[in-house]
Amino acid sequence: MEKKINLSGLLGFPVPDGEQKLDGDGTGLGYNLGILLEPHKDVAIGASYRSKIKVDVEGKVSHDIPHSIPSPYREEIQVALPNTSATTDIVLPQQAYIGVYYKGFDPLTFEIATRWEGWSSYDSFKIHFDKPVADSTSYVLGKNWKDTYSYNIGVKYQLNKSVAFLAGYLYSENPVPDETFEPSVPDADAHQFSIGTDIKFNKLRLALAYAYQKWQGRNKHNAIDDNPNDGVFNSETSANGEYRSEVHVIGISLNYRF
């Protein structure tokens, strides 16, 4: 995680922003369950569940102070914002998925599906510092995310025994409420469109895919600023405004069956 730090507020006069960066590693343990039913030769119904996974993270917090800030102010900031070890934890949400597959229109195959994600488990983000940073040994940011659903439909056209074409659409809800929406995760409801191909050469299988995802525009108008822990709202560092995002994804998969 990276973010800017308003050093002007720390010193009381205008200076360039600093940067804070958290690097860490962690492990977690979870499980998956799944079932596939075929009530008819042309119909299959699949369902799966993934447990939530708590990842305990250990790492380091580092600060980059601009060299343009003269002494002794730069040294003063370095004392207030030391590099230090830190710990946090992240809870990956539980998920439930169900889909229905129909192949009665050969060579066309259709699937519709929905997925639930339990993001309400992400109620806050906490970092604990080994050394005080800005006179505090912890950083807490409320999240209060909510559970979400996504919905998708896909189609496959089997051109021949070796080549198939695929296309799909997905709509996903976002878990971030307006009161905790901030730039580190500028999420919004999203639409995704995808196309791909599946090619077989004897025991070799090659899959290519392209997806375009567009997040709906979203406005931030809340009291979260660069330092929500100080209890003082700074409109100049709140990053309030409109957020728009899009992403292009290319996927390549190569399989060999022995």
Describe the structure.
With 258 residues, this protein is mainly beta. It has one domain: Outer membrane protein transport protein (OMPP1/FadL/TodX) (Porin), CATH 2.40.160. Helices cover 5% and strands 60% of the residues. The protein contains 2 helices and 15 strands. It has helices spanning 7-11, 73-80; strands spanning 2-5, 18-27, 32-40, 43-50, 53-64, 84-92, 95-105, 108-117, 124-133, 136-142, 148-158, 163-172, 190-201, 204-220, 241-256. The strands form 2 sheets. Strands 3-4-7-8-11-12-13-14-15 form a 9-stranded antiparallel sheet, with no helix packed on it. Strand 7 (95-105) and strand 8 form a beta hairpin. It starts with a strand and ends with a strand.
Helix content: under 10%
The largest sheet is: 9 strands, antiparallel
Helical element count? Answer: 2
Classify the beta-strand content into a percent band: over 45%
| Domain module tally | 1
Rg for CA atoms: 24 Å
Give me the CATH architecture, please.
Beta Barrel
Order of helices and strands: EHEEEEHEEEEEEEEEE
Q: What is the CATH topology classification name?
A: Porin
Judged by helices, strands and strand pairing, the structural class is mainly beta
Shape call:
elongated
The CATH class is identified as Mainly Beta
Low-confidence stretches: none
- The CATH H-level superfamily is Outer membrane protein transport protein (OMPP1/FadL/TodX)
Strand order of the largest sheet: 3-4-7-8-11-12-13-14-15
According to DSSP, the number of beta strands is: 15
Output mean pLDDT: 93
Span of the ends, CA to CA: 42 Å
